[in-house]
Every structure is written in C-alpha cells, then in structure tokens.
Design brief:
Layout lengths: L2 H108 L26 H8 L1
Length: 145
C-alpha cells in the first residue's frame, strides 16, 4: 500500500465516522421533535377546556358586574330622590314648625313657666347622676329606707 492509498482509506474512515455521528444526531433530534409534538398536543388538549371554562367564568362575572352596576345606579337614584324629598319637607314644614315652637315658648314665658325648671314642682329635690361614680354604702341604705 502506498501512502496515497492509506490516506484515501483514512479519509473514507473519517467520512464514515462523520456520517455515522450525524446520523445518530439526526435520529435523536427526530425523537426530540416527536416528543415535543406529543407534549404540545397534550397541552393543547388540556388547555382548550380550561380556556372554555375561563371564558364562561369571565362572561358570568361580566353579568354580575352589570347587575351590580344597575343596583348602584338604582341606589343613586333613590338617594337623590330622598335628598330632594328631605329638602322639600324641610322647606315646607321647617319654617312653620319653627314658628310654632317659638310661639309655644312665648306662651310658656308669658304664663310664667319659663322652662328653666324654677316653677316645676320637685325641681330642687332632683338628683344629679355622675356616670362612673358609686354612691357610698351609707347613702345607699338611706335611699332604700
């Protein structure tokens, strides 16, 4: 064998090893792609029902929000009606009631019962209550007896 033939055999062996290595790499790559395809299909099968459920939940939430919005607008309308009614009642009855109260006060003063408690019987015997204070036991016995 000559040097050229040996070099040709080495080149052929090199190419054979290189082609074998590339074939193994391509086979592994094909297996990885198949596994990835299966995984994507499984995820898709599981994701579609979840997305349908999520969509139904969002629609239900939107319906509830619409109801709450309607209730809030009704409450706002009732509040404005109540405010208008209270201002109407205050303007209609407020002035006359103040006049009647003032008239009653004037009549009491004119009759000598000024409302300060001086002419009320038993006004001097009233007791003062102090919150949080206890009556001594000797005074309690006197009050009971």
């Amino acid at each position: 064998m000559t040097g050229g033939e040996v070099a040709g055999i080495l080149v052929a062996v090199f190419w054979a090893i290189l082609v074998s290595f590339l074939a193994v790499v391509l086979v592994r790559l094909a297996q990885t792609l198949r596994a990835t395809t299966r995984m994507v299909a499984d995820v898709t099968e599981q994701a579609v029902p979840l997305l349908a459920d999520a969509s139904a939940t969002v629609r239900s939430a939107q319906t509830q929000l619409d109801r709450v919005d309607a209730i809030a607008s009704d409450v706002q309308e009732v509040t404005s009606n109540a405010s208008a009614l209270s201002s109407t009642v205050a303007s209609t009855f407020g002035g006359p009631l103040v006049k009647v109260a003032a008239f009653g006060y004037g009549v009491r003063k004119a009759l000598g019962r000024g409302g300060d408690g001086a002419d009320v019987p038993g006004a001097s015997s009233r007791r003062t209550v102090i919150v949080g204070r206890t009556v001594p036991s000797s005074r309690r016995r006197k009050q009971k007896g």
